[in-house]
Amino acid sequence: MVELTALAWALLAVAALITGLSKTALPGAGTLSVAIFAAVLPAKQSTGTLLLLLIVADVFAVVAYRRDTNWRALLRLAPAVVVGLGLGVVFLALADDAWVRKVIGVILLAVIVVTLIRRRMVATVAGSGSHRIAAATYGTLGGFTTMVANAAGPVMSMYFLAARFSVKEFLGTAAWFFALVNLSKVPFSVGLGLITVPGLLIDLVLVPAVVIGALSGRWLADRLDQRLFERLVIVFTVIGALYLLLF
């Protein structure tokens, strides 16, 4: 902790605030947090440190939308998500910090592309193929991306939109999906050495920012220009991803 500069702490605090906001008001914004954490901390440690903050934010999302969950959709996704998580665990066990850093950058760029084309593809996904194929595809990709980079938000958002969920059903199903998946990642993260004592100390400092972000999310949701915010998130996430790939 003593090695972090004031600027690094400021960036981590902003990322923690965004983490809370992304769970209660701005789905997909969490990719910016992933980029900031991976840029400030060692790549592998960043995933474990951010994971614990995500779990804190998940609590607020589940409480807010606990009655609006499509459990059938979650059960349909479960087998593929387990496969994706397993692939992510294997990758993290074999890859060094440099490779993880690069892959996080690639994943971030990929989920940005998914975000940009999501609205155009929703109708196509919803009207073609079986639900099983869609669940297998998005579930596996979501499991892998969340294990490796905590960056499954845009991928799973696309699946939930394609399923034509109402707004509350979307938020409730997503809240429980990420709460359950993130909790299941904890043992693997501990076993792989991604959750460390220094990381826990950093989390203790940053938890208040997550709480503030989560509590502010519902209030801010109706007052922010969503389109402008999404564009800013995309721009800064691209910068973060390119930083991870090039430096």
TrEMBL record:
<dbReference type="InterPro" id="IPR052017">
    <property type="entry name" value="TSUP"/>
</dbReference>
<feature type="transmembrane region" description="Helical">
    <location>
        <begin position="228"/>
        <end position="246"/>
    </location>
</feature>
<protein>
    <recommendedName>
        <fullName>Probable membrane transporter protein</fullName>
    </recommendedName>
</protein>
<keyword id="KW-0813">Transport</keyword>
<feature type="transmembrane region" description="Helical">
    <location>
        <begin position="190"/>
        <end position="216"/>
    </location>
</feature>
<feature type="transmembrane region" description="Helical">
    <location>
        <begin position="138"/>
        <end position="162"/>
    </location>
</feature>
<keyword id="KW-0472">Membrane</keyword>
<dbReference type="GO" id="GO:0005886">
    <property type="term" value="C:plasma membrane"/>
</dbReference>
<feature type="transmembrane region" description="Helical">
    <location>
        <begin position="73"/>
        <end position="93"/>
    </location>
</feature>
<keyword id="KW-1003">Cell membrane</keyword>
<keyword id="KW-1133">Transmembrane helix</keyword>
<dbReference type="InterPro" id="IPR002781">
    <property type="entry name" value="TM_pro_TauE-like"/>
</dbReference>
<feature type="transmembrane region" description="Helical">
    <location>
        <begin position="99"/>
        <end position="117"/>
    </location>
</feature>
<feature type="transmembrane region" description="Helical">
    <location>
        <begin position="48"/>
        <end position="66"/>
    </location>
</feature>
<keyword id="KW-0812">Transmembrane</keyword>
<dbReference type="Pfam" id="PF01925">
    <property type="entry name" value="TauE"/>
</dbReference>
<comment type="similarity">
    <text>Belongs to the 4-toluene sulfonate uptake permease (TSUP) (TC 2.A.102) family.</text>
</comment>
